Automatic annotation (TrEMBL):
A Pfam match: 7tm_1
Keyword Transmembrane helix set for record: yes
Keywords, comma-separated and alphabetical: Adaptive immunity, Cell membrane, Disulfide bond, G-protein coupled receptor, Glycoprotein, Immunity, Membrane, Receptor, Transducer, Transmembrane, Transmembrane helix
GO molecular function: G protein-coupled ADP receptor activity; G protein-coupled UDP receptor activity; G protein-coupled UTP receptor activity
Signal sequence, renumbered to the chain: none
Gene expressing this chain: P2RY6
Protein name listed in UniProt: Pyrimidinergic receptor P2Y6
Matches recorded under PROSITE patterns: G_PROTEIN_RECEP_F1_2
Transmembrane segments: 21-42, 54-74, 94-112, 133-156, 179-202, 233-257
Domain G-protein coupled receptors family 1 profile span(s) in chain numbering: 33-293
Keyword Ion transport: no
Subcellular compartments: Cell membrane
GO biological process, one term: adaptive immune response
Amino acid sequence: VENIGPRCTYKEDFKRILLPAVYSFVFLLGLPLNAAVILKIWKARPNLSRNNIYMLNLATADFLYVMSLPLLIYNYASHDYWPFGELACKLVRFQFYSNLHGSILFLTCISIQRYVGICHPLATWHKQGGRRLAWCICGGVWLVVVALCAPTFHFASTGIQRNRTVCYDLSRPEHSLDYYPYGMALTCLGFLLPFMGVVVCYCRMACFLCRPVSYQGVSVATGEKRDKAVRMIIIVVAVFCISFLPFHLTKTMYLLVRTLPKAPCEMRNLFSVIYKSTRPFASMNSVLDPILFYFTQPRYRKSTRRFMLKVTTLKDKEREREREVKNMLMKESA
């Protein structure tokens, strides 16, 4: 229960079931999936494409965030009890927002890269710099993410509620007005602007891919490139619709209501429940991002199929051996 104002309390019993369940799911799937993506890309590092460089950084951000989830699972399963100290509270909140906005920015980089490759296939300006430029862009993204999320170390903190130590997500209730300008700026710079860029890129790509294969004497894209681009559009749109858009809409409404001094407790509680119900799904991008890599990398899909084929073949051979052993034992006993 979170105290807001002298008389208003938030009833958040739903968090004890929803958040541990979703975070456990994300941890169990996100940890091996992102580790597999990192290892797969790292093995091919002498010949990394620019797209894979962005994917490597995206998977790294997701992996670091997933590693912090056990603390949150324990926290919410223990009725919001936070025994890990002030610094751990600030780090966990920073990891959440840095992963969230890092994922948004790296997905934006991937989308722009794909847009340029599809809509401007003959241009050479975007090929100058190659992998070195891609690494510099990734370094710039990390710097922007750190700068955007650094105030989290100031606002996120522990507090005492009903004789229990808790870790505040946004800020202490008494700092709601101070947090509001930063929260709105973070939403605009870390989500709205990149989202608008992604929408423009994909609208242009959709128009371009709807053209005939040869348009005005210029080859638009091969069938494989078209399929790869369509798959990426579908998955990235799904990531934004599931993880990013609902979270930022409900967070904006919650921040606004939280700063209204005359807002009734029922309204505050309603928007708190709506916002905090979408918050765990913002972490679902740590599971969806590796799926993006899988469906946009034909070689990775082929190697996965080969691995699965080997596993099933080994199982079939083992079963066949077991049958032979059973038959031999039956003959000997007869």
